[in-house]
Model the fold of this input.
Amino acid sequence: MSILLELNAIPIEWQFLSTDVLLLDHGINENSTLSFVIEKHLKPGPLNHKLKPFCAEKLHCVKFFILKYPKAPSHLLHELDIRAPIREQLANLVILEYPRIHVFLPSHSFDFDVIKSADPCHHQPEMEESRGIRGR
Done:
């Protein structure tokens, strides 16, 4: 049974916008959700003072993105759903070494192409691809 867990384990790198914080998790079960994995990093404590703005924000308001094609000249990012299993979200993406997930606060502005994930919490009409989206 431990062999099965090792086969389903992946590393994930977290890059928090507007900070110099870059975290690397090893051995994350690919059947876990992003919310389960990120919660431990966003619990208030003395070691994550640089992440205070992220800790203070409601988790469902924080945005998570991953590059669709890491080596492509354009920056097309895929918005991730924190409630879906990691395995499902990475299935159709090009991953080099390990996934790097970019973490944004709702107050952050961003100017790149985004492929939105299906998210039933949004009350806006879903768009397959939107250009120049600005954070709320």
